[in-house]
Amino acid sequence: MNAANNRMNESEARDIGQGAQRFASAVASPAAWAFVWLILRIFAVSGYDWNTAFAVSTTLSPSDGLALLFGSLMAGHVLVAILMIVVLPLLIASYAWSPRGHRPLVMLGTTLGVVTLVALTVSFREWWLPVASAAVFAVFALIHILSPKNPVRRAFMAIMSRIGWVSGIAIVLVAAVVQTPWVPQEQIETTDRTITAYVLSVDSGYLNILTEDHKFEILISSDVISRK
Length: 228
Fold this sequence. Notes:
Layout: H1 2-27, H2 30-45, H3 50-57, H4 65-75, H5 77-97, H6 104-124, H7 128-144, H8 151-161, H9 163-177, E1 185-190, E2 194-203, E3 206-211, E4 216-220, E5 224-227
Antiparallel strand pairs: 1-2, 1-5, 2-3, 3-4
Protein backbone atom coordinates (compact mmCIF):
# COMPACT_ATOMS: atom_id res chain seq x y z
CA MET A 1 0.00 0.00 0.00
CA ASN A 2 2.81 2.41 0.92
CA ALA A 3 4.61 1.67 -2.34
CA ALA A 4 1.42 2.39 -4.31
CA ASN A 5 0.92 5.64 -2.42
CA ASN A 6 4.52 6.65 -3.08
CA ARG A 7 4.11 5.97 -6.80
CA MET A 8 0.91 8.01 -6.81
CA ASN A 9 2.61 10.90 -4.99
CA GLU A 10 5.51 10.79 -7.44
CA SER A 11 3.08 10.82 -10.36
CA GLU A 12 1.17 13.77 -8.91
CA ALA A 13 4.39 15.65 -8.24
CA ARG A 14 5.53 14.99 -11.80
CA ASP A 15 2.20 16.21 -13.20
CA ILE A 16 2.35 19.34 -11.05
CA GLY A 17 5.91 20.00 -12.18
CA GLN A 18 4.99 19.59 -15.83
CA GLY A 19 1.99 21.87 -15.37
CA ALA A 20 4.18 24.51 -13.74
CA GLN A 21 6.66 24.29 -16.63
CA ARG A 22 3.88 24.69 -19.19
CA PHE A 23 2.51 27.70 -17.28
CA ALA A 24 5.98 29.27 -17.06
CA SER A 25 6.48 28.77 -20.82
CA ALA A 26 3.10 30.34 -21.53
CA VAL A 27 3.83 33.34 -19.31
CA ALA A 28 7.20 33.85 -20.98
CA SER A 29 5.72 33.81 -24.50
CA PRO A 30 5.58 37.08 -26.49
CA ALA A 31 1.80 36.72 -26.86
CA ALA A 32 1.35 36.69 -23.07
CA TRP A 33 3.52 39.79 -22.65
CA ALA A 34 1.61 41.56 -25.43
CA PHE A 35 -1.73 40.71 -23.81
CA VAL A 36 -0.65 41.98 -20.38
CA TRP A 37 0.78 45.14 -21.95
CA LEU A 38 -2.45 45.83 -23.84
CA ILE A 39 -4.65 45.35 -20.77
CA LEU A 40 -2.43 47.63 -18.68
CA ARG A 41 -2.48 50.34 -21.36
CA ILE A 42 -6.27 50.27 -21.58
CA PHE A 43 -6.65 50.53 -17.80
CA ALA A 44 -3.92 53.20 -17.46
CA VAL A 45 -5.43 55.61 -19.99
CA SER A 46 -8.86 54.97 -18.46
CA GLY A 47 -7.70 56.06 -15.03
CA TYR A 48 -8.13 52.42 -13.92
CA ASP A 49 -11.89 52.80 -14.15
CA TRP A 50 -13.54 49.52 -15.21
CA ASN A 51 -16.39 51.02 -17.25
CA THR A 52 -14.15 53.50 -19.05
CA ALA A 53 -11.66 50.75 -19.84
CA PHE A 54 -14.45 48.66 -21.33
CA ALA A 55 -15.51 51.57 -23.54
CA VAL A 56 -11.92 52.28 -24.63
CA SER A 57 -11.38 48.62 -25.55
CA THR A 58 -14.22 48.79 -28.08
CA THR A 59 -12.29 51.39 -30.11
CA LEU A 60 -9.32 49.10 -30.76
CA SER A 61 -8.76 46.66 -33.60
CA PRO A 62 -6.00 44.09 -34.27
CA SER A 63 -4.39 46.47 -36.77
CA ASP A 64 -3.82 49.09 -34.05
CA GLY A 65 -1.02 47.15 -32.34
CA LEU A 66 1.99 48.98 -33.79
CA ALA A 67 0.40 52.42 -33.51
CA LEU A 68 -0.62 51.68 -29.93
CA LEU A 69 2.90 50.59 -28.92
CA PHE A 70 4.70 53.41 -30.71
CA GLY A 71 2.19 56.05 -29.61
CA SER A 72 2.38 54.92 -25.97
CA LEU A 73 6.17 55.22 -25.93
CA MET A 74 5.93 58.67 -27.52
CA ALA A 75 3.31 59.80 -25.00
CA GLY A 76 5.39 58.58 -22.05
CA HIS A 77 8.68 60.09 -23.18
CA VAL A 78 9.64 61.30 -19.70
CA LEU A 79 9.38 57.83 -18.16
CA VAL A 80 11.01 56.28 -21.24
CA ALA A 81 13.94 58.69 -20.85
CA ILE A 82 14.39 57.71 -17.20
CA LEU A 83 14.26 54.01 -18.01
CA MET A 84 16.71 54.44 -20.89
CA ILE A 85 19.35 55.69 -18.45
CA VAL A 86 19.51 52.18 -16.98
CA VAL A 87 18.17 49.87 -19.68
CA LEU A 88 20.38 51.08 -22.56
CA PRO A 89 23.68 50.75 -20.63
CA LEU A 90 22.51 47.31 -19.50
CA LEU A 91 21.79 46.30 -23.10
CA ILE A 92 25.22 47.52 -24.21
CA ALA A 93 26.86 45.70 -21.30
CA SER A 94 24.98 42.53 -22.15
CA TYR A 95 26.04 42.83 -25.78
CA ALA A 96 29.68 43.40 -24.82
CA TRP A 97 30.18 41.04 -21.87
CA SER A 98 27.42 38.45 -21.71
CA PRO A 99 28.10 35.09 -23.42
CA ARG A 100 24.68 35.38 -25.05
CA GLY A 101 24.98 39.10 -25.73
CA HIS A 102 25.27 38.78 -29.50
CA ARG A 103 21.84 37.23 -29.91
CA PRO A 104 19.73 39.02 -32.55
CA LEU A 105 17.19 40.25 -29.98
CA VAL A 106 19.91 41.86 -27.85
CA MET A 107 21.44 43.51 -30.92
CA LEU A 108 18.03 44.75 -32.04
CA GLY A 109 17.19 46.04 -28.56
CA THR A 110 20.54 47.83 -28.32
CA THR A 111 20.04 49.47 -31.72
CA LEU A 112 16.51 50.61 -30.85
CA GLY A 113 17.76 51.90 -27.51
CA VAL A 114 20.47 54.02 -29.14
CA VAL A 115 18.00 55.43 -31.69
CA THR A 116 15.51 56.22 -28.90
CA LEU A 117 18.21 57.94 -26.83
CA VAL A 118 19.28 60.10 -29.77
CA ALA A 119 15.67 60.99 -30.64
CA LEU A 120 14.83 61.97 -27.06
CA THR A 121 18.00 64.04 -26.75
CA VAL A 122 17.45 65.95 -29.98
CA SER A 123 13.66 66.35 -29.74
CA PHE A 124 13.42 67.53 -26.13
CA ARG A 125 16.94 68.99 -25.72
CA GLU A 126 17.61 66.51 -22.93
CA TRP A 127 21.39 66.74 -23.23
CA TRP A 128 21.80 65.27 -19.75
CA LEU A 129 20.36 61.98 -20.98
CA PRO A 130 23.44 60.61 -22.84
CA VAL A 131 25.67 61.89 -20.04
CA ALA A 132 23.64 60.05 -17.41
CA SER A 133 23.56 56.88 -19.55
CA ALA A 134 27.34 57.03 -19.98
CA ALA A 135 27.79 57.45 -16.22
CA VAL A 136 25.63 54.39 -15.53
CA PHE A 137 27.61 52.38 -18.09
CA ALA A 138 30.83 53.47 -16.36
CA VAL A 139 29.46 52.10 -13.08
CA PHE A 140 28.62 48.83 -14.84
CA ALA A 141 32.18 48.69 -16.23
CA LEU A 142 33.63 49.09 -12.75
CA ILE A 143 31.41 46.29 -11.47
CA HIS A 144 32.47 44.08 -14.37
CA ILE A 145 36.17 44.29 -13.47
CA LEU A 146 35.52 43.05 -9.93
CA SER A 147 36.43 39.52 -8.91
CA PRO A 148 34.11 36.84 -10.35
CA LYS A 149 33.40 35.79 -6.76
CA ASN A 150 32.28 39.27 -5.74
CA PRO A 151 28.53 39.16 -4.89
CA VAL A 152 27.88 42.49 -6.59
CA ARG A 153 29.47 41.27 -9.83
CA ARG A 154 27.62 37.96 -9.62
CA ALA A 155 24.31 39.79 -9.19
CA PHE A 156 25.17 42.08 -12.09
CA MET A 157 25.98 39.12 -14.35
CA ALA A 158 22.71 37.46 -13.34
CA ILE A 159 20.78 40.59 -14.34
CA MET A 160 22.62 40.75 -17.66
CA SER A 161 21.71 37.15 -18.39
CA ARG A 162 18.06 38.15 -17.93
CA ILE A 163 18.16 41.29 -20.05
CA GLY A 164 15.03 40.14 -21.90
CA TRP A 165 13.03 40.09 -18.67
CA VAL A 166 14.45 43.47 -17.62
CA SER A 167 13.51 45.07 -20.94
CA GLY A 168 10.07 43.46 -20.86
CA ILE A 169 9.39 44.71 -17.33
CA ALA A 170 10.48 48.22 -18.35
CA ILE A 171 8.00 48.25 -21.25
CA VAL A 172 5.24 46.88 -19.03
CA LEU A 173 6.01 49.62 -16.49
CA VAL A 174 5.48 52.22 -19.21
CA ALA A 175 2.14 50.60 -20.05
CA ALA A 176 0.97 50.65 -16.44
CA VAL A 177 2.15 54.13 -15.42
CA VAL A 178 1.68 56.38 -18.46
CA GLN A 179 -1.92 57.61 -18.46
CA THR A 180 -1.63 59.68 -21.64
CA PRO A 181 -3.31 57.89 -24.57
CA TRP A 182 -1.40 56.78 -27.67
CA VAL A 183 -2.84 59.55 -29.89
CA PRO A 184 -2.13 63.31 -29.92
CA GLN A 185 -4.17 65.67 -27.80
CA GLU A 186 -6.66 67.78 -29.76
CA GLN A 187 -8.81 70.86 -29.32
CA ILE A 188 -12.21 69.82 -30.63
CA GLU A 189 -14.68 72.62 -31.33
CA THR A 190 -18.31 71.53 -31.47
CA THR A 191 -21.54 73.42 -31.95
CA ASP A 192 -21.91 73.99 -28.19
CA ARG A 193 -18.48 73.70 -26.59
CA THR A 194 -14.71 73.24 -27.03
CA ILE A 195 -13.19 70.03 -25.68
CA THR A 196 -9.58 69.12 -25.00
CA ALA A 197 -9.46 65.40 -25.63
CA TYR A 198 -7.90 62.47 -27.45
CA VAL A 199 -9.67 60.99 -30.49
CA LEU A 200 -9.37 57.24 -30.09
CA SER A 201 -11.24 56.33 -33.26
CA VAL A 202 -13.36 57.84 -35.99
CA ASP A 203 -16.32 55.77 -37.13
CA SER A 204 -19.07 56.46 -39.59
CA GLY A 205 -21.03 59.37 -38.16
CA TYR A 206 -19.27 59.79 -34.82
CA LEU A 207 -15.98 60.15 -32.90
CA ASN A 208 -14.90 58.20 -29.83
CA ILE A 209 -12.91 60.48 -27.55
CA LEU A 210 -11.22 60.37 -24.15
CA THR A 211 -11.12 63.61 -22.18
CA GLU A 212 -8.24 64.88 -20.06
CA ASP A 213 -9.94 63.57 -16.92
CA HIS A 214 -10.29 60.06 -18.41
CA LYS A 215 -13.95 60.29 -19.42
CA PHE A 216 -15.10 58.43 -22.50
CA GLU A 217 -17.48 60.31 -24.79
CA ILE A 218 -19.06 59.85 -28.21
CA LEU A 219 -19.41 62.92 -30.44
CA ILE A 220 -21.67 63.14 -33.47
CA SER A 221 -19.53 64.03 -36.49
CA SER A 222 -22.00 66.65 -37.72
CA ASP A 223 -21.62 68.52 -34.41
CA VAL A 224 -17.82 68.83 -34.82
CA ILE A 225 -16.79 72.16 -36.35
CA SER A 226 -13.01 71.80 -36.18
CA ARG A 227 -10.18 69.74 -34.75
CA LYS A 228 -6.78 71.20 -33.93
